[in-house]
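Holo prediction — phosphoenolpyruvate.
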Amino acid sequence: MNTITGKPVCGGIAFGKLELIKNETSCVQRIRVNDTKKETERFEAALLTAKKELDDLYKKALLEVGEENAMIFDIHQMMLNDVDFLDSIKSNITNQKLNAESAVAMTADNFAQMFSSMDDSYMQARASDVKDISERLISILSNKKSTSVTSGGNVIIGALDLAPSQTVQLDKSKILAFITEEGSNNSHTSILARTMNIPAIIGAKGILDDSFNGCDVIADGYSGKIYINPDMSTVLKMQEKKLKSEEKMLLLSKLKGVKPVTKDGKEILLYANIGSEDDLVSVYENDAMGVGLFRSEFIYLERKNYPTEDEQFSVYKNVAQKALGKRVIIRTLDIGADKQVDYFDMPEEENPAMGVRAIRICLARPLVFKTQLRALLRASAYGKIAIMFPMITSVGEIKKIKEILEEEKDDLRKDSIPFNEDIEIGIMIETPAAAIISDLLAKEVDFFSIGTNDLTQYTLAIDRQNDAANAFCDVHHTAILRLIKTTVENAHKNKIWAGICGELAADLNLTETFLAMGVDELSVSPSLILPLKQKILDVNISKIKDDILQSLY
Ligand code: PEP
Ligand code: MG
């Protein structure tokens, strides 16, 4: 038995024969042409055919995987209309007297290299799109069949990478899983895998070994492990894991569409935590009622320089639109401590977790803060965005934040730029100070979201990054639970709602306690939503409330 470990992209366990697909990276012959006019015409004809093929693929994808995923073929069509791309190919034909195939290959290599070297992970992922369209053009020019996966079926596909157009053509009823040596979580192929719910593993180095072709394989899309020619004990172990996960999924999937209401009738807002626009796919898959925490700092972390207002606006707007009216709580920049961004050039700190982080950076650097607020306000015209501020410790901070927010609103009004005048604002309760004065803070905002990750570290004086101190970290500590209870009570006294978006929200051992306290919202990783919903449905708050609350004192 051989074992390879990759990165799981989509859960599920598949047993099957491995079929390696080695894209004939069209070995393009470089031929000198004399009649460049005729060669250009040959290219123009291939271009038309490619556009037609992409149009057909768009229509197929629209039916099978929805508009959002079909968009990739629209993007490919746009790339085929890109003046720079086309000019470069035509100039290779006319000036260098190259045959159309090598003119396309040369241009595609340059463009793919340019995309790969960009800092933005989204743009990097576009390199595979360029390769995809050039393969298509070259196949048409050389009269080869297009780049579809031609497997007979009931196999696990192994490939270097799969182009989006290949992935969408996978027949779900025949392809059991796919494994690639390359790929990124952000690529359309991974997004499609999740949407199509095919077990998928990327970054599986070594899977392309020819001797594995046709072998029995088990692909574990939960752990990223691939077993080639598995021994009997692994087969039995994985069969059991598959059975259990299928039983669980089946049971949980029945909860989609069911409202998370306790036995005694309290409906809980069950939201998802996300870190990027792409994560919205799993928000839908898991039936979240909205987004309880969008960690906007990832937009800053993945860049080499400050994201502009327009760049941020575009992300927030997309998220707002894709959420289709559901509430999306976007947290303003929370960097510092463990999340360092080079270009912020922050002075080194003795104890960064207690230093200038999150809202402190924003208040110290109003330009950075204002840019984000303006982008958020502008995006609020396109959906139900709420803004949330991290690491609050005082009423003064909120007053200052609201002052800055009002200035930005005024500016937008002057420029006649639309935004939601009633945009909700909330704060994270993640410092003991905020929990203790939550009665005062509640008068200033529309909601509270309790960040138990930081609330735990600050309450117990345990650095959340320090493994050595982990043994002392009791996440169920009464001090933390009392602070949560105080926060919820103060929220309700002031007629606002309170939720939890730290990791503790998904701790099923505490669900009853949180509901007994009156917590209104729980926001967790998308894949944990359905198990949590199951738990909520089983709770009868009135029966357990008194005992649980008394046990805290
Ligand atoms: C928290 O502190 O609980 C929280 C949700 O924020 P983060 O983990 O991003 O600090
Ligand atoms: Mg936090």
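READOUT: The pocket of magnesium ion (ligand 2) is lined by residues 390, 430, 451, 453-454 (CB under 6 Å).
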